[in-house]
Amino acid sequence: MSDARLQVPRGTRDFYPEDLRRREWLFGHFRAAARRFGFEEVDAPVLEHEELFTRKAGEEILEQLYHFELHGRRLALRPEMTPSIARMVMARSGSLRFPLRWFTVTQNWRYERMTRGRKREHYQWNMDIWGETSVTAEAELIAAVFDLLDALGLAHRDVKIRISSRALLEETLRNTILADRPEAFPGLCVAIDKHEKIGEDAVRDLLTDSDGPVGLGEDDARFVISWLGLRKVEDAARHVPPDSRAFADLQRLFNLLDTYGLADRVVFDASIVRGLAYYTGIVFEAFDADRKLRALCGGGRYDRLIESLGGSAIPAVGFGFGDVVIGELLSDKKLLPEPPRQLDAVVFPFGDDERAAAIRVANALRRERQWSIELVLGTPRLRRVLADAHRAGARFLYVLGPDELSRGEMLIRDLDSGEQTTEPIPN
Questions:
Q1: Where in the chain is the domain with CATH 3.40.50.800?
Q2: Beta carbons of 240 and 171 less than 8 angstroms apart
Q3: Which residues of 360-385 are buried (b: 16+ CB within 10 A; e: fewer)?
Q4: What is the pLDDT of residues 392-409, one digit of tens each?
Q5: CATH fold of 14-43+85-332
Q6: Which CATH architecture is the domain 345-424 placed in?
Q7: Residue-wise pLDDT tens digits, 335-363
Q8: What is the pTM of this model?
């Protein structure tokens, strides 16, 4: 087999035991945070009908699908979890009791340009609330993100969540430059979401491209880009009426987050728009305070997603939190642990004469104490077995040699204290 064939495809990862222990440590924190907030875990196939992701034409994500045709069916690996959850809600909407609090920890695929913190295959923690119209749902989700970050050991100053409103931007533009062509708004959001990646000049080119989906004049494009620079809610609301629902929602959200004790950890940032077309209201993204990494997580309200898939409207809000960027941040902060192997004991028979007794010991410990037991399969020297047991983090070593077998007992060594005791060999 060639050297190239021994490498994983670009953007994917192997998980050796030590890597998988770190991954499961992180996933354990995802699940614990979700359950502290009363969420239930669900799952769905990694393979979906392609149409589930292509109904919203014009989004960048459509170019990143891993998709194929098999037996006349167009299928795709999921690039994100929200459409799958929407499909599940639609399938049982008549029998579900709202609001729903669901979370997932899933593997996702996007064929995109790789940078630090961005891979083509990644795992993502999603939390979604379905059936709640008020921003109490957004506040609860943002609080859950900070609950996780605190549990991971990050300091309050390490991460900020930046909040904006697609609804406020839409109201502003429909009252001004898009008054006669509101249909251009989704394409405009896709363009300005690239602001951080491609820069202001490139975004202006996208907005003013006469052959593109937006086609703004130069002055209008400058107005949009200047709006992205706003950092006060009141400034962003200058072009909407005093009774604006979007403005009221933003104000209430920040008041709620103050009640959660999070006022110093959230900021208004008009440049947060999120590129997916289904967002309709509040949007937010979490970044490391120094902005050295891409977003840790992002989400917002998507009240019309079910409608876009052909169902009845159900309000919803959620976020996705990837495993790659948080791993980079924890590594930078020296907070990424090396979880030990979970092994209670090693059972060591000196040779074949002692093996039957060793099997009885291992079986008894596994069955009666529910311990993790490694039964030594070959005949290495005791010194090697001791070293391996210490390296694996085992608590005890059970030794069965000719002398122990003749006495009908096993030698038990406490690997922390070095103390040795004996017990009868189980029948």
A1: 345-424
A2: yes
A3: bbbebbbeeeeeebbbbeeeeeeeeb
A4: 999 999 999 999 999 999
A5: BirA Bifunctional Protein; domain 2 (3.30.930)
A6: 3-Layer(aba) Sandwich (3.40)
A7: 999 999 999 999 999 999 999 999 999 99
A8: 0.90
